[in-house]
């Protein structure tokens, strides 16, 4: 669940940042994709960490 939340939050964050910088549609899409990948990876590591520590 954490990676999905990271993807959504990352895409929204990237789009907002690109919009604030005056970017157009493709700029917003590129920022959204980059931030979604980054936040999704962070979410994946969080999920792995929680899964490994919950068993012990």
TrEMBL record:
Q: Which UniProt keywords apply?
A: Membrane, Transmembrane, Transmembrane helix
- Keyword Transmembrane helix listed? The answer is yes
Q: What is this protein called?
A: Apolipoprotein acyltransferase
Ranges annotated as spanning the membrane: 28-51
